[in-house]
Amino acid sequence: MNPANTVRGLIALESQNPLTHVLDKQQAAQFIALVAQDLAAIIQDIKNSSLVMATATYPVEQILQVNFPIHSRLQKYAEVALQGSEKQQHLLSIGGNNGHMPDGLQPLATQQHFMLMPFLISGLNKDTATRLEQQLMHKGMIAPPSYAFLCQAFGQQFTHVNYMTTLDLVAMMHNHYDQMGQGGLWQLIEYVLVGNRDAHMHHLPQGNFFYLLNDTVYTPFFSPSEFKKHTEETPYIAWLLQQRLSVSTLRTHGLNVAQFKPQNWDPNEIKTCLGQISQNTIQQSFMTEANGEIEASQEVEITHYQSPEAGLVAIAICNTNKHSRIVYYPVEANGIRDIEQHIATHYPNPVQTQDKHINDL
Hints:
- By secondary structure, the protein is of the alpha+beta class.
- Helices cover 36% and strands 25% of the residues.
- The protein contains eleven helices and 14 strands.
């Protein structure tokens, strides 16, 4: 298979019902022949190209991953299966066996209504590849025979079925995130998806900062007191909710994310920031902010600081004389559990547990 001028394509399917389906190998072979006909009608000069397709449905977040692993896997399968002559069109359909796809192509379990079926076209000349990238989505309504085949295979009708490229999908998600008020977050994801790996600083209106460095996104995790040093305009809970959403979304799209403790931190001094990152990256599922030491042999009070919008935000412990205090902030999904286990292990003499609003911290 000639990888020159490769186009990463998709069939976008939308339905009123959840779309989770894997075509078997016989169905896959039938369907890719129909897809080849559709693509030849859209862009005529593809007779010497190679088409490889995974006939399963994938959610957006599995397709739009760093380095596009689903399409990269298709490329590897094709390099093995389509060796040899490059003077004719090659078709390789990858279907399932009892509903299971081969290694690296198993779809995520989901109940979404918008799903994607990926394919790869290789061996195109430069002009044809450019035209395909530019025109596929605009000219790419699926042909009636292909649509009828999908309806029969899935056992349902579709609201929309059309061809597009991964870049079209990136642009679509850009608009989607803008409409949700998360356009700034998507800009960072898009920056990486389109192939940028240069060091990059990005911030959101809520006060969230992100640094892309060596394929990892570093982001400061603030305590309320640290956050107030940088802004009085945004409530801490608004920042925290955006931080949680941002970290989760970045990881969903395959980015490595590391949170760090921003001590003596100046967001305008990138060199200082990089030094902070290396020294203060949070290695556990929670961040600790200590004021003095707690005597483990003495009785301790435990306070849960909560918010109606964000739930449990922090857990603090202090000796009953209250001269010292340690505050723990969960920064990962399992952070609360790990904090509770840590306290139970190291401070076995709690006398009371109370709940307070985070504004009382």
